[in-house]
């Protein structure tokens, strides 16, 4: 062996510290888990997931999977609907700015998501079982369905009795008169299907809604110094009304489930748009001029749930 090679070998063997550290076999790098803010609350994580979610973010105590789209817009936009959070961003905005905007708006986003979840829970509890004896709200009061195969009344398809105790086949009850539900008698046989019952009730409710809406439009229009031109009934999922500058008004017929005061608020709201096509302070002053307690009624409309209609 060459003397220089022997010297080098002897040097390293006599000084193990000079030997290189053994290297662990290389493995594929694992992706890092999403970062959680240092001030994030501990405890169970609440999950919100949009059915078309493409991104996910941790906001406080919640993990939010949201729908993300880019488009021709000037700023980042957020909307919380029945399905969850949707985010829209300009094409030039980097993702880290989107994440920062989500954190900045986290309190508003989480509040809206929770409100939406609670509203859907209330809707699920208000699904009507379409059968003889079923109940539903009408102008803020409880109405009970009664099938009448003999069609012993003059109304077209249905008739609302003002006093349950006057019904010849009223069931015995210990409830005081003030708590007795009003009865809607339907000209249907006892074996009518749920779809048949629902269709007759819906047709009757829509007739009542149109009649009431026309009356309230004619009441509030002169007070607001506006003139409406046409009324159309809508069946929108979350929108209660709309107005166009040509004077046409659309009102959701399902408002008939709420009290008359709530109906008045929505009617006055849409008529006020014929003066102010926005939601500026001037618009709300216009609404308040005819419905002074509009804020409480507006909140009532948000808090209460109309029955689910399939």
Could you explain the architecture of this structure?
With 310 residues, the protein is of the alpha/beta class. 34% of the residues lie in helices and 21% in strands. The protein contains 7 helices and 12 strands. Strand 11 and strand 12 form a beta hairpin. The termini are far apart. 19% of the residues are buried.
Overall shape: globular
Q: Radius of gyration, rounded? A: 32 Å
Overall average pLDDT: 82
Low-pLDDT segments, ≥5 res:
10-22, 27-40, 164-178
SS summary, helix count: 7
What does the oligomeric state look like here? Answer: single chain
The helix/strand series, from N terminus to C terminus, equals HEEEEEHHEEEEHEEEHHH
| Structural class estimated from helices and strands | alpha/beta
Total number of beta strands = 12
Fraction in helix:
25-40%
- Biggest beta-sheet profile: 5 strands, mixed
Strand content: 15-25%
N- and C-termini, Cα separation:
93 Å
